[in-house]
Specification:
Shape: extended
Distance between the termini: 118 Å
Number of strands: 9
Organism: Fusarium oxysporum Fo47
InterPro entries: DUF5672 (IPR043729)
Number of helices: 12
Largest sheet: 6 strands, mixed
CATH superfamily of one domain: Spore Coat Polysaccharide Biosynthesis Protein SpsA, Chain A
Order of helices and strands: HEHEHHEHHEEEEHHHEHEHH
Pfam family, one: DUF5672
CATH architecture of one domain: Alpha-Beta Complex
Structural class: alpha/beta
Strand content: 5-15%
Strand order of the largest sheet: 3-2-1-4-7-6
CATH topology of one domain: Spore Coat Polysaccharide Biosynthesis Protein SpsA, Chain A
Helix content: 25-40%
Protein name: DUF5672 domain-containing protein
């Protein structure tokens, strides 16, 4: 009996020793594997601080002045916002009625909250009713050295102007000038319509600190661009540069789609296809017109934007033929936003007012 118990105890001791030895061997193997295993890279810690930082550049302001509560105002401001570089801020100046009308748009209110859009009233002692009043308003030193501060570059646009999303230029490409607008003379050294124009605020302040426009004299765009053109440090875009920026009364050079040249034994059609595929593999290259894709643009004038003009007159050199209009509606369908368009005059036969 006693001998059986001793044998059982010795058996248990042997099993315990074996278990301990086995545990030590396994632990050793795990330690060795852990030491030789390639360590995983440490995840980077990134901290983003957005508080008190704005993506908007307060020195770049797009300005629309309109005292009439027109339905096009909110859609037009949105169009310009999404066409222009995202750091531009916007200011709308209007009457009690037009500001209330803009503020009734949910989209406009969201942009006001974000800080991209500012709504401002036209002072009660000032007016923008008619060309002369607008000219007085836009040649008032107070506007530039007080209201628009700290703006340095100003884009003035009106409800009869538009930017074209299909154009390959951006507003920022013209910021090296003190003034750019649709040219009155394509061979001129300076000057351009102010309804869609870029202006350097500091240069205008320099002019207005020393000169004052006489009432009922030259329109503000003529008055300012002439003086900026003669300023000792002035840099006003000439006619050829202004043509790229905006079109109003003068056409411009047509786009030229280059004919591709290929190395190897290709006929004209095969060469065009090879070139087209090569260009499609390299997207995002501004100014690259591709035969087989951009043929519809060949020979057509395509400014970055259009301005109709205060009189609503559509000049023949821009709009005067069906071919020109059809191209504009393909290249810049947004232009229809600022045009009075109704299908009735284009439907054959007698067409009732309502149909």
């Amino acid at each position: 009996m006693i001998s059986s118990m001793f044998r059982a105890q010795r058996h248990l001791s042997s099993l315990s020793r074996m278990a301990i030895i086995l545990l030590m061997i396994v632990s050793g193997i795990l330690i060795i594997l852990n030491l030789t295993e390639t360590p995983l890279p440490t995840l980077p810690k990134i901290t983003l601080h957005y508080a008190n930082q704005s993506i908007f550049n307060q020195s770049k302001v797009a300005l629309l002045i309109e005292n009439r509560p027109q339905p096009i105002i909110a859609p037009l401001i949105l169009k310009f916002m999404y066409q222009m570089p995202p750091d531009w801020t916007f200011r709308f100046m209007g009457s009690n009625e037009s500001v209330a009308h803009v503020n009734s748009s949910a989209a406009m209110r969201e942009h006001v909250k974000s800080g991209k859009l500012d709504l401002t009233y036209i002072p009660s002692n000032m007016s923008t009713a008619g060309q002369e009043m607008i000219s007085r308003f836009l040649t008032n030193l107070w506007l530039y050295d007080t209201v628009l501060q700290p703006a340095e570059m100003l884009l003035v646009f009106q409800t009869d102007s538009i930017l074209c999303a299909n154009n390959k230029h951006t507003v920022d490409e013209f910021l090296g000038y003190d003034y750019v607008g649709a040219p009155w003379d394509t061979r001129g050294r300076y000057g351009g319509n102010g309804g869609l124009s870029i202006r350097r605020v500091s240069s205008i302040i320099s002019i207005l600190q020393n000169q004052q426009r006489a009432n009922d004299s030259d329109p503000e765009d003529v008055w300012l661009s002439t003086r900026l053109g003669h300023h000792i440090d002035g840099r006003v875009a000439n006619g050829s540069v202004s043509q790229l920026f905006s079109g109003e009364m003068n056409g411009g050079p047509g786009k030229v789609v280059p004919v591709p040249r290929c190395k190897g034994d290709y006929d004209e059609e095969e060469c065009e296809h090879v070139n087209m595929m090569k260009q499609m593999e390299q997207p995002g290259r501004p100014g690259q017109w591709v035969k087989g894709i951009d043929d519809w643009r060949d020979g057509s004038y395509e400014p970055m934007g259009y301005h109709i003009g205060g009189t609503g007159w559509m000049h023949g050199s821009i709009w005067g033929t069906k071919v020109r209009r059809e191209h504009i509606y393909s290249y810049c369908p947004e232009a229809k936003m600022v045009l009075e368009m109704d299908w009735a005059p284009f439907v054959p036969g007698d067409c009732a007012k309502d149909w």
